[in-house]
Design goal:
By secondary structure, this protein is α/β, with parallel strands linked by helices. The protein is built from 8 helices and 7 strands, in the order E-H-E-H-E-H-E-H-E-H-E-H-H-H-E. The protein folds into 2 domains: about 200 residues, 3-Layer(aba) Sandwich (Rossmann fold); about 30 residues, no CATH class. The protein is about 45% helix and about 15% strand. Strand 1, helix 1 and strand 2 form a beta-alpha-beta unit.
Length: about 250
């Protein structure tokens, strides 16, 4: 899955799945522009990897998506891959969720991804095509208590993936989704630490997965990089679950 000569943007690229995706794309030969809000972590990641630069950006800023794509084009001269990974987690009793919170979740998880897709697809279409991978969630397809707003935002992104795949196919732009299950990210570790019995919480989560373990960030990054690669050149409009069989049960 060589990416030599190709250029990628990864949003939410400073930790967890995003950072591991940046590392893997770099190892495969891509030039990568990573974005995020943590300048210290982003700069450290760029120093760690070959052909990786970092741009601090808040995707809820209406001008950020255009600025990110323009920065990639200015630095590398082209754009071949967009990984829409930036996301905001949310839990809460559905009937009590304030509308301001719900709108904030959709601003990050859906509208920012839509804006990035629009900007990236326009650049790709003008230059012969490319690949967009939207990171959704197992919750785009199943219901979980206390996760209704987050699930809805990821479900909207999955629906966008399918429609965009059809609309952009004639222009050589493929659009797919990766749907992770529980993944060992900093957010997961923080959640475990808050539980009354962290060891039992880890066991319970692992036991809910048919494969008996949760995903590592590298498991999800591998799926993202595959769908972005030429090995997946005839795949568009697909959603690839990386959940150890959770949504198949």
């Amino acid at each position: 899955m060589t990416f030599a000569g190709r250029v990628a943007i990864v949003t939410g690229g400073t930790s967890g799945i995003g950072a591991e995706t940046v590392r893997r794309l770099s190892r495969e030969g891509a030039a990568v522009l990573a974005t995020g809000r943590d300048g210290e972590r982003g700069s450290k990641l760029a120093e760690e990897c070959d052909r990786v630069s970092f741009l601090i950006a808040d995707l809820t800023d209406a001008e950020a998506p255009a600025r990110i794509v323009e920065a990639a084009l200015a630095e590398y001269g082209r754009l071949d891959v967009l990984v829409n990974n930036a996301a905001l987690d949310h839990t809460g009793e559905l009937i009590a969720v304030p509308m301001a919170e719900a709108r904030q979740v959709f601003e990050v998880n859906f509208f920012a991804s839509l804006a990035m897709l629009q900007q990236a697809a326009a650049a790709m279409r003008a230059d012969g095509g490319g690949a967009i991978v939207n990171v959704t969630s197992r919750l785009a397809s199943i219901g979980v208590e206390q996760m209704g707003v987050y699930s809805a935002s990821k479900g909207a992104l999955l629906a966008l993936t399918r429609s965009a795949a059809l609309e952009l196919a004639p222009h050589g732009v493929r659009v797919n989704a990766v749907a992770p299950g529980m993944t060992r990210t900093p957010l997961y570790e923080a959640w475990v630490a808050e539980q009354e019995d962290p060891a039992e919480a880890r066991r319970a989560v692992a036991d809910s997965v048919p494969q008996g373990r949760i995903a590592e960030p590298g498991d999800v990054a591998a799926a993202i990089v595959y769908l972005a690669s030429e090995d997946a050149s005839h795949i568009t409009g697909a959603s690839l679950p990386v959940d150890g069989g959770y949504t198949a049960a």
